């Protein structure tokens, strides 16, 4: 009805039509809202996925998604140079189609474990990449929801090359000598333990050799540590070149090397014969000249040898026996080898017992000092050197030659040095009350280990404060070679003590190759001529030339010179004629107990009524 109004039309259609239109409108609105929510959800999902990809791409590691067959479904990384192939060539291919057999097998096994467990699994493998040989660690975790109807897993792969290299450096430092790159003591002891066990199982004998370079110290002091290091590296290389690949050449430290020969022979005699042949070759190689500073230098070696089989002896016992045999070789004239035998076993037992006794004597009052007078050119007493003595229970006074070398080998010199220093300072403090002791100086030897101990300076100053001994009347004697060990630390410690008034003398001067440059930097008061140069005066022209050189050097440095070991009037006269300032030796007095020295002071003071006391010849000399 064209002329009917819209309202009329709807009126004619009736109520059912109106209800139908209302329902359609509601349905359309619901559909529109659902579409809007779907679009919002899709946008949020896309944004979330984009964020996830951005985050994943920012991870410096490799991220893979693989299916249960090990087929790569997705590859995410910023470091494509760490991949075995470009991402486009990886996706859709299995482990075995992308990786070498070894890494592929490792990942295949780890994937199977991850899919069979709710826990993640870990695998390590190495791979050649465009960035070079790299070490990787892979963490594999199963994904709960299937992908494409198949089970899947996520793999996070980390490049751990730097960590592996750091671990290797730490291991090298722990088990290898950084200078020679040979095994160190720790690794040697481990290998020796394994060798003992292997020999016990096989019935074969092995050999252990302890080697010490005879002249290394002199070369090191004369030519410097750089050339000393060159010599040690060359010596290690020569040793390594003689033995088999399965044998061990180790450096214990300093100029000490050890060679371990395994599985030599069933018979001890045959093993000894084979070991002696190797030892001869080792000594021959070490005895060849070393090219240092453009010149050929000789540096022979002494070698100690012990044969072992099974669990007869521990690693420590074998090391001690080889060490003892080496010292026997040195006593026999150096550049030779000695095999451990039963009499050395007795000597070793005695030595260990004496070392234990020496350790036990520390801090018990078993040590005391004897004093040997020092005189000036006019014969006047100017001081004394404190010399440590050990009063062994039931044995009497032990000579220094018995316990000093043992203390050096056992690392007890700092402890003995503290004993001597304390006794000397206590006696120096008592001199303040004695007639005739005015101005006398107490000389005390200190060892290298003592000087370089942390807190040594503070320890000396505390001792002076405790005893009341005057610092300006204490003189510390240091061996010449000691100062060359670490000249900067020596200068620092000496300077601090010199500022407090303590004096310094270089003991055994002329044996350590000190340069004028070093001596000028040290706060020295005195040079002490070694007894080796005094002994042959005045007849020996070389000794006389050395003495005159020392005198000239001291004059340049403007310091005093004292000679030790003066035993004859001819020696004394020669030293006087050449300008020596002070003297010490049996010609004037032997080392004597402190009570005897005090009595000497009192007698001299009473006899001369003077603060300057002359010391006559000792009737005991």
From TrEMBL:
This is GGDEF and EAL domain-containing protein. It comes from Thauera aminoaromatica. The chain crosses the membrane at residues 6-32. Coiled coil: none annotated. PANTHER family: BIOFILM ARCHITECTURE MAINTENANCE PROTEIN MBAA, DIGUANYLATE CYCLASE DGCP. CDD domains: EAL (cd01948), GGDEF (cd01949), PAS (cd00130). The keyword RNA-binding does not apply. Residues 204-342 form the GGDEF domain. InterPro entries: Biofilm_reg_signaling, EAL_dom, EAL_sf, GGDEF_dom, Nucleotide_cyclase, PAS, PAS-like_dom_sf, PAS_4. Pfam families: EAL, GGDEF, PAS_4. Residues 48-118 form the PAS domain. Gene3D superfamilies: 3.30.70.270, EAL domain, PAS domain. Residues 351-605 form the EAL domain. It comes from the Bacteria. Keywords: Membrane, Transmembrane, Transmembrane helix.
């Amino acid at each position: 009805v064209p002329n009917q109004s819209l309202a009329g039309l709807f009126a004619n259609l009736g109520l059912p039509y109106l209800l139908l239109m209302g329902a359609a409108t509601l349905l359309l609105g619901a559909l529109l809202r659902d579409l809007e929510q779907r679009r919002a959800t899709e946008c949020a999902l896309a944004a979330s996925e984009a964020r996830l990809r951005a985050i994943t791409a920012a991870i410096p590691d490799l991220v893979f998604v693989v299916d249960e067959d090990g087929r790569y479904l997705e590859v995410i990384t910023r470091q494509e140079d760490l991949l075995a192939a470009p991402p486009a060539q990886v996706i859709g291919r299995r482990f075995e189609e992308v990786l070498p057999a070894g890494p592929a097998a490792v990942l295949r096994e780890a994937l199977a474990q991850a899919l069979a467990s709710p826990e993640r699994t870990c695998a390590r493998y190495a791979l050649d990449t465009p960035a070079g040989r790299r070490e990787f660690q892979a963490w594999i975790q199963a994904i709960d929801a299937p992908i494409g109807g198949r089970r899947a897993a996520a793999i996070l792969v980390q490049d751990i090359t730097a960590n592996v290299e750091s671990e290797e450096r730490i291991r090298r430092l722990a088990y290898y000598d950084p200078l020679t790159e040979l095994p160190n003591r720790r690794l040697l002891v481990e290998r020796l333990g394994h060798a003992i066990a292997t020999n016990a199982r096989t019935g074969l004998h092995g050999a252990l050799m302890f080697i010490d370079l005879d002249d290394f110290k002199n070369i090191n002091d004369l030519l410097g540590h750089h050339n000393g290091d060159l010599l040690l590296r060359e010596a290690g290389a020569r040793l390594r070149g003689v033995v088999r690949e399965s044998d061990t050449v180790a450096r214990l430290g300093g100029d000490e090397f050890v060679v371990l020969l395994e599985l030599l022979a069933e018979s001890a005699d045959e093993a000894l014969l084979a070991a002696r042949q190797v030892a001869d070759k080792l000594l021959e190689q070490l005895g060849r000249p070393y090219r240092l500073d453009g010149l050929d230098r000789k540096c022979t070696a002494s070698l100690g040898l012990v044969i072992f089989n099974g669990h007869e002896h521990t690693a420590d016992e074998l090391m001690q026996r080889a060490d003892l045999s080496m010292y026997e070789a040195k006593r026999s004239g150096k550049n030779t080898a000695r095999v451990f035998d039963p009499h050395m076993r007795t000597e070793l037992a005695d030595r260990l017992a004496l070392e234990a006794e020496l350790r036990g004597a520390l801090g018990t009052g078993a040590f005391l000092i004897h004093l040997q007078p020092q005189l000036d050119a006019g014969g006047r007493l100017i001081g004394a050197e404190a010399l440590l003595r050990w009063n062994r229970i039931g044995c009497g006074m032990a000579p220094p030659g018995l316990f000093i070398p043992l203390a050096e080998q056992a690392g007890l010199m700092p402890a003995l040095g503290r004993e001597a220093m304390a006794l000397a300072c206590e006696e120096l403090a008592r001199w303040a009350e004695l007639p005739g002791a005015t101005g006398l100086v107490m000389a005390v030897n200190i060892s290298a280990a003592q000087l370089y101990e942390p807190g040594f300076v503070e320890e000396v100053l505390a001792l002076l404060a405790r005893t009341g001994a005057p610092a300006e009347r204490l003189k510390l004697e240091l061996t010449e070679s000691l100062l060359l060990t670490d000249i900067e630390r020596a200068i620092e410690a000496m300077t601090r003590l010199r500022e407090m008034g303590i004096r310094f003398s270089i003991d055994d001067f002329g044996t350590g190759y000190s340069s004028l440059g070093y001596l000028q930097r040290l706060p020295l008061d005195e040079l002490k001529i070694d007894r080796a140069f005094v002994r042959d005066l005045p007849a020996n022209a070389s000794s006389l030339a050395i003495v005159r050189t020392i005198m000239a050097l001291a004059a340049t440095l403007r310091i005093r010179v004292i000679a030790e070991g003066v035993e004859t009037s001819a020696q004394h006269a020669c030293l006087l004629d050449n300008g020596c300032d002070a003297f010490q030796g049996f010609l004037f007095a032997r080392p004597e107990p402190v009570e005897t020295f005090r009595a000497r002071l009192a007698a001299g003071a009473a006899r001369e009524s003077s603060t300057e006391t002359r010391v006559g010849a000792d009737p005991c000399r």
